[in-house]
Amino acid sequence: MSGFDERFFQAIFQFAQKSFFLDTVGIFLADGVLYVLIFFSIIFVLLQKNWQKRIFLFLELTLACLLARGVVVEFIKFFYHKLRPFEFYGFEPLISASGRAFPSGHVTTLFAITIIVFLFNRSWGGWFLAFAIISSIARIFVGVHWPFDILGGVVLGTGTAFLVHFLLKGERVRIWPP
Asked: Angle of helix 51-65 relative to helix 33-46, nearest 10 degrees?
């Protein structure tokens, strides 16, 4: 464990398990925001003006998430084992988590969704980004991730989303020209 990981984790986790209200908010932000963003990304898809845009945007979101979470994260976790903070320190986290800590699959998915939405609409994407960042910090607060787990998820989710967006650019231009 790096000194930065431990210090930054302690700076955030010190506020956990002291207030029922704060813990409840932290649990929702750490676990629930992903599902809220998935819901709003579906709304965003449905609000597109024509069916081709809807299908394409849905496809791009789905591919980015599946590639980021289902392939890249699992590949890294297969080869790299890192204990979660609650395993390292021996405490009970606010939410259940299992498996290897690095990178955060949750955060990877959050950022894959966020970046795709942002690339299509900066206004919606800005809101998604704010909630993705807050949820990422909450994953530290509830005791299931180190800061570098979060950073890894941000980089992988963002990178995969840009890759998928770039690879599908030709098809996107064919469906709706600039």
From this structure: 150
DSSP string, 131-177: HHHHHHHHHHHTTS--HHHHHHHHHHHHHHHHHHHHHTHHHHHHHS-
Rounded CA gap, 78 and 25, in Å?
Answer: 32
CATH superfamily of the 3-175 domain: Phosphatidic acid phosphatase type 2/haloperoxidase (1.20.144.10)
* Domain extent listing, the chain: 3-175
Percent of all residues in the chain with a pLDDT value above 70, rounded to a whole number = 94
How far CA 101 is from CA of 44, 60, 152, in Å, comes to 31, 27, 10
DSSP-assigned letter for residue 71? I
**110 Cβ neighbours under 8 A, 6+ residues apart:** 33, 34, 37, 132, 135, 136, 153, 157
The pLDDT tens digits for 39-93 are: 999 999 999 888 888 888 899 999 999 999 999 999 998 998 888 888 888 888 8
- Tracing tokens 């890192």 back to the chain, one arrives at 82
What is the band of 176 on the pLDDT scale with cuts at 50, 70, 90?
A: low
